[in-house]
Amino acid sequence: MPAVRYELRGDAAWITLDQPERRNALSDALVGELRAHLAAANAAADVRAVVLTGAGPAFCAGADLKAGGIGAADNPFVEVLKTVWEFPKPIVGRINGHAFGGGVGLAAACDLTVAAESALFAFSEVRVGVIPAMISVLCIRKLGIQQAMWLFLTGERVSAARAVELGLIHRAVPADRLDATVEEVLDLVRLGGPNAVREAKQLVRRIPELSVDEGFRWTATKIAELFASEEAAEGMRAFVEKRPPRWAAKP
Ligand code: COA
Questions:
Q1: DSSP label at 96?
Q2: Residue after which a domain boundary falls, among 140, 171, 189
Q3: Do both 171 and 233 map to the same domain?
Q4: Could you tell me the pTM of the whole model?
Q5: Atom 19, ligand 1: which residue's CA is nearest?
Q6: What range does the domain containing 79 cover?
Q7: What is the mean pLDDT of the chain?
Q8: pLDDT tens, 46-72?
Q9: Are 154 and 213 part of one and the same domain?
Q10: Is the minimum distance from the CB of 25 to ligand 1 under 6 angstroms?
Q11: Beta-sheet strands, E only, within 161-241
Q12: Tell me, what DSSP letter sits at residue 66?
């Protein structure tokens, strides 16, 4: 039985963690398959966006506590987190249920994140005697030091609505609106030029890591490059001709 499902729905690749009986905990098999499916979605030219979700009542319960947690320093989960964070195409997190430990990290690594209102979020690591280690690299960037300190030290469970306030995710919606909201997000993304959306993601990831001078230098070069691109030529032509650009036109 596969631990992760991969499905093409139009131009979106849906990747579903599929071990609900163990709350999609990060077993070696699940992490390995997740990694392989992300690579496939990246390589597929017809895939414009990825939806990452879980089957069953939880999104992901973090490290596999029945297998002794996380061992080697070169744990492949690091590779998965980094891949999601830096993935060239937008990744929509469809957070169907609880996200604990590494599961919050995975949710936080996604670019556009919608959760069921019933989902709870917790950095529960201290409660089993460890720390939110690798996920802190991404989560402190999202939460800031103040909120990370609270959540990491207390392990407190917070609601999806609170996770939105904290900046961990974008939206919390009733469970029966989750799929419609994910489709709305995908439709919004489809309005942008595919290359522009990819570049916008890199912009958000990269700018906070650069100095102000480096940031201006890099973005001034980048914008000139994009204005000279075929995609922008089409976008500007479409604007002048008062029609949707090719990539956003309804078939
Ligand atoms: N690793 C391995 N198995 C896990 C797991 C994990 N992280 N989280 C849940 N499971 C297993 C449970 O052991 C249980 O198996 P069992 O049926 O053989 O007893 C099954 O999944 C269902 O778990 P349960 O706790 O009954 O589900 P729930 O829906 O009531 O609660 C959670 C879901 C995620 C809130 C809860 O399972 C939990 O707190 N998990 C641990 C999360 C955690 O601390 N992760 C950080 C690790 S550093």
A1: -
A2: 189
A3: no
A4: 0.96
A5: 22
A6: 4-189
A7: 96
A8: 999 999 999 999 999 999 999 988 877
A9: no
A10: yes
A11: 171-173
A12: G
